[in-house]
Specification:
43% helix; six-stranded mixed beta sheet; alpha/beta; 336 residues; binds zinc ion; Aminopeptidase; 6 strands
Length: 336
């Protein structure tokens, strides 16, 4: 049967056709059920993919560690943290071709100094920030030699020998300060011969820490607290530019608060200061390409002049700080 056109209908019936618009019934319940099933399938797929990816990554890590023949819990931890960092903004530097020795002061039975309650140990803070510095340096492509990456202890001569033997280009020792009184802030110690490279390293680290936020910039200091005639051991027995960072006073709440809140940023600031120094002294160019064929040494440090007497001097335990001296009296239980 032919369907009449509208015109034909009008001619025959004298009026326009009334069309009943058939309202389509929408089966909401079916749509909702379909949607729930779809969401279920998608969620399942996402979970499955994540599981497969993590399994593949885990296998890779194991393989890498086997190949390197250097399997350690720390290596696995680093893999995890670097994967986490990849989510962050791109690294500030890359392919930095030099070696840095990072020294977390004290360790094991040598707790260093403590806070007023006696429950917070310097050795733990030192290690925490050292691991952050390591993380950023490695992100920048720097070869890092860790004096310790756990709660272990090395003698001072062993620490220096480790850096010298590894032909590290720079040495950074990390500490927390202490004082029985109202002093806060960050200071960085350098050999009392005021060597140029070491001073630059200390200043760059201090500048970058100040950008993050410190309670007070106590500046670059030379020699040993209370006695500029002697040096901290690590500033005397290492051949490369070195410095000892006192990252705030563990005896001050404000410094501990800043330390806890900015741990990662402090780690990055110290790493940035190190890389900036490498560029400043012409060890590498901005792209990280190495410009010096030999290890970077600090030519003005007495140890490099084979002056055994000054090394011996530096190895001498400094006297207790004279209370009349125009410096604060360190409570730090250490002799370097
Ligand atoms: Zn210390």
């Amino acid at each position: 049967m032919n369907t009449l056109s509208d015109e034909e209908f009008e001619q025959i019936y004298g009026r326009k056709p009334v069309r009943r618009v058939k309202k389509k019934k929408i089966y909401w319940n079916r749509i909702i059920i379909a949607l729930i099933i779809l969401i279920g399938i998608v969620t399942g797929l996402v979970k499955l993919t994540a599981l497969v990816v993590s399994k593949i990554k885990g296998d890779d890590t194991q393989k890498t560690n086997k190949v390197l023949n250097n399997t350690s819990s720390v290596a696995v931890k680093e893999d995890a943290s670097s994967a986490e960092d990849k989510k962050d903004e791109p690294a500030k530097y890359s392919n930095m071709d030099f070696t840095v020795c990072v020294d977390a002061g004290h360790g094991d039975y040598d707790g260093g100094t403590t806070d007023a309650s006696g429950t917070r140990y310097e050795k733990d803070d030192n290690l925490k920030v050292a691991l952050e510095v390591q993380k950023y340096l490695e992100k920048y492509g720097v070869n890092v030699v860790m004096i310790r990456d756990d709660d272990s202890f090395l003698e001072l001569d062993e620490r220096c020998a480790k850096a010298n033997n590894a032909k590290a280009d720079m040495y950074v020792s990390l500490h927390r300060n202490s004082y029985d009184g109202d002093i806060s802030g960050v200071e960085v110690w350098v050999n009392n011969s005021e060597p140029e490279y070491d001073t630059k390293l200390a200043q760059n680290i201090l500048d970058d820490l100040e950008k993050v936020g410190i309670s007070e910039n106590r500046g670059v200091q030379y020699g040993y607290v209370g006695n500029s005639g002697v040096n901290y051991y690590i500033n005397a027995d290492t051949v490369m530019p070195s410095c000892l960072v006192e990252l705030g006073f563990i005896t001050e709440d404000i410094d501990n608060k800043l330390f806890d809140e900015h741990l990662t940023e402090y780690g990055q600031a110290i790493a940035d200061g190190i890389v900036q120094t490498a560029v400043d002294v012409g060890l590498v160019d901005e792209s990280g390409k190495r410009l010096m064929s030999e290890q970077l040494i600090s030519p003005e440090k007495p140890v490099n002049n084979k002056d055994s007497s000054s090394v011996a001097d530096a190895m001498t335990t400094p006297m207790e700080t004279d209370s009349s001296a125009d410096v604060y009296n360190t409570q730090e239980n250490e002799w370097y």
